[in-house]
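Holo model, beta-D-glucopyranose. Inputs:
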Amino acid sequence: MGKKGTPLGIDIGGSGIKGAPVDLKGGKLATSRLKIATPQPATPEAVADVVDQIVDHFAAQTRDAPIGVTVPAVVIHGTVLSAANIDPSWVDTDAQALIKKHTGREVTVVNDADAAGVAEVHYGAAKGVPGLVLLTTLGTGIGSALIMDGVLVPNSELGHLEMDGHDAEKVAASSIKDKEELSWEEYIERLQRYYSMVERLFSPDLIVVGGGISKEADLFLPHLRLRAPIVPAALRNSAGIVGAARLAADLARHA
Ligand code: BGC
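Output:
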């Protein structure tokens, strides 16, 4: 543990809120993470309480080091602007101010997929890849991160492109595979159309696929026909924590 304390990453998800101090050199959790069930309903106040518990738990290691927090929504300068898969009361919440009120600490709040993308670019499947990297997370919804030569273009929200007259995430997220009991063949057909559309629009150099289903990447990625290489995320379920801490630390350095 350094004199200055270790940056903390906290990932707010639908079922759990997870946090850990992050070793930014190695892009790894510095100690094992703490996971607390997401309160129901997951209102901003209730969630900020849990974030406070996590901040307290790691206070000795983090001291006054930067803290990054992810939410599964559009976040502009700390304020949450959408709520596709979270409690609607988050819309227009200044999450940064709210968490500061609960924890007494300055925090940086970012979109969950943006954090995961930053983690993959610095430490994972997109490390050292020049040009445009697109990360998508397939889970309850579809999250996305666009990163050009290491610089994040935040809140790309490519899960909300239109597909078959719906938000793409209502057609091609992995939760839909489960809900509609799609076979791999049926699901791959949807993913093919989704990624072809994204590739037509953005022409990325590399596509990285995260989310729980990336554990089974062998079953679907080799079947997708795209120009860009498409690879599974490397950091798996620590990507949000690592990326949030990295973004918070980068911001603090440039402040
Ligand atoms: C939200 C995104 C989020 C994604 C993954 C989408 O419904 O609009 O902000 O990144 O889900 O959690």
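Residues 72-74, 82, 84-85, 111-113, 137, 141, 143, 157, 159, 169 surround beta-D-glucopyranose (CB under 6 Å). Residues 128-233 form a domain with the Nucleotidyltransferase; domain 5 fold (CATH 3.30.420.40).
Archived with the compound record.
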